[in-house]
Amino acid sequence: MKTKLFAAAAIAALISGSASAATFGVGDTLPAATVTDGGYAYVEDGKVEYKEWSVSEIKPQGTIVLIAKAGRAAAADMVTTEFVEKLKSANVDMINFINKDDAAFGTGMFVEGAIEESMLKDPAGRVVLDRDGELFAEWELEEQSAAVIIVKDGKVAYLHEGALDASKENKILELSK
């Protein structure tokens, strides 16, 4: 009987998707975290380079949208390219974080290659490659998933893990103004 109740509770939790696994919530400051393997991507002399990145680099004033994704197609589909383009069109300050450690087995090099190709096309893009999943582990973000975090004046104003629907996209666009 207990096994059936536990199984039912586990299935309900998975289906609801409303619980966040993150170590922070709305109203909190982002927990300190540093990405040492990989890091902030930038283009120098026609080549993509990486430098260590830390949460302390986020300005405490203003609004920024952080998009954190596992390095797999299913996570990329949760926060679509079309939605990211809407954010760009609205001149939203944004950083994309990619967890290469959570890529499907054997695909990590393709994930990194896609980041580098994207950076060469748009050197102004802001991407942090997390090769070892350091940031994702520190923040306890859901594996094989995506998260959107809005930080306003140093505090988390919005946090969603999982797929976005139209109403969540609209809320993010409104809050990011």
Q: What would you say about this model in short?
A:
This protein has helices at residues 2-16, 73-78, 81-89, 108-121, 134-139, 166-175; strands spanning 34-44, 47-54, 63-70, 94-99, 127-130, 146-152, 155-161. Helices cover 34% and strands 29% of the residues.
Overview of this structure, please?
By secondary structure, the chain is of the alpha/beta class. It has one domain: Glutaredoxin, CATH 3.40.30.10. It has six helices and seven strands, in the order αβββααβαβαββα. It has helices at 2-16, 73-78, 81-89, 108-121, 134-139, 166-175; strands spanning 34-44, 47-54, 63-70, 94-99, 127-130, 146-152, 155-161. It has a seven-stranded mixed beta sheet. It is globular and about 35 Å long. The model is unreliable at 1-19 (pLDDT under 50).
Write the layout of secondary structure elements.
Blueprint lengths: L1 H15 L17 E11 L2 E8 L8 E8 L2 H6 L2 H9 L4 E6 L8 H14 L5 E4 L3 H6 L6 E7 L2 E7 L4 H10 L2
Largest sheet: 7 strands, mixed
Structural class: alpha/beta
User: How much helicity do the residues have?
Assistant: 25-40%
CATH superfamily: Glutaredoxin
- Total separate domains: 1
Rg over alpha carbons: 17 Å
Q: What topology, given as strand order, has the largest sheet? A: 2-1-5-4-3-6-7
Looking at CATH, which topology would you report? Glutaredoxin
Annotated CATH architecture: 3-Layer(aba) Sandwich
